[in-house]
Amino acid sequence: MSPPPTSVILPTIRWTSACDEVADQLEPDDELLVVADDESDPVADHLGDLPDGVRLVFAGEPERCSGKANAIAAGMEAAEHDRLVWTDDDFHHPSDWLSRLHADYAEHGPVSEVPFFVGRDPLSTLLEPIYAIGGTLGAYANDKAWGGGVLFERDDLDEAAFLRDLRRTVSDDGLLSEHLDVTPLRRARRVDVGGTVRETLERHARFCQIVHRHEPRDTVVMGATATATTAPLLLFPWAGILLSTLLVAAVYAAFGVRRWTALLAFPAMILQAPALAYGLARRTFVWGGRRYRWRSKFDVEVLS
User: What confidence score (pLDDT) does residue 1 get?
Assistant: First the structure.
């Protein structure tokens, strides 16, 4: 049986290859909503040359939430269909990406892929093993949604309550995980991150604070585990190098990833405790060109 008409929501300020990849997978009754801030964004240049089934939505400036949360909320409100897909503009969408999500929903209900973050600068490259354990394995093991590849229907959650909360927080998928019972798929999409050390520090602060705001107990567990393992790793470095590398290599293999960065497991784990402390200590962070102060889950100040 064919899946029902679907609205795909893709927040972006510029037209990327991902927009074309998703547009090519639409069925005649589907739609792709490319959500930008306003007509000053570069993606607006495509207004007169949009592929069939693609609409451009302007979300406006966020007031008490992140730009991403604001875009998702605007996209959901503008979407014509009950089956919704969220995705991002920063990874490759193979030709069967959308059809596989539909097949997975038919089997499991609401589903989500998981990200594998690939570094583009020295610091983000060094942090890859940490992100593989926390971001990839953690999302899979703890039934978390990832905004880059999630499919659900409006009736799967209390949409009004979700949209109300979405417009006063930072993390779209962190919040979705609280409102939606989702089945993560052991299918990782490679997402390039970083580019400069400064960009990586900003992203890392955001990652740490997302966990802290949505799963504070996980923050305590992560901090305690990172601190407790540092001394043994330093006291018995050869054993630490072997065991940490085997652990990270197993995580990579479980998600079909082959990356030499598994060899960075030992220094990454040594860095884990101070990196977590740094991320939690930051009072503000930059995401998508805006600086935010995130005081509590539903207390967000957009500074610039």
Answer: 75
Find all residues with CB under 8 Å of 84, minimum gap 6, and list them: 6, 7, 8, 9, 76, 151, 152, 153, 154
Residue with tokens 């880059």: 148
* Cβ–Cβ under 8 Å, residues 257 and 116: yes
Amino acid identity, residue 255?
A: F
Query: What are φ and ψ of residue 144, in 5° steps?
Result: -100, 145
Q: Token pair of 201, please?
A: 């520090």
Cβ pair 191, 118 in contact under 8 A: yes
Residue 21's nearest CA partner among 88, 102, 83 is 88
Q: What is the mean pLDDT of residues 50-55?
A: 95
What whole-number distance in Å separates Cα of residue 62 and Cα of residue 290?
10
φ, ψ for residue 224, nearest 5 deg? -65, -40
Look at the block and give the residue holding tokens 């600086």. 291
- Sheet order of strands, 111-119 included: 54-58, 31-36, 6-11, 83-87, 149-153, 111-119, 183-193
**1-108+145-181 CATH pick, 3.90.550.10, 3.40.50.300, 3.20.20.70, 3.40.50.2300:** 3.90.550.10
DSSP class of residue 3?
Answer: P
Domain locations along the chain: 1-108+145-181, 118-142+193-290
The per-residue pLDDT for range 27-47, each reduced to its tens digit, is 999 999 999 999 999 999 988
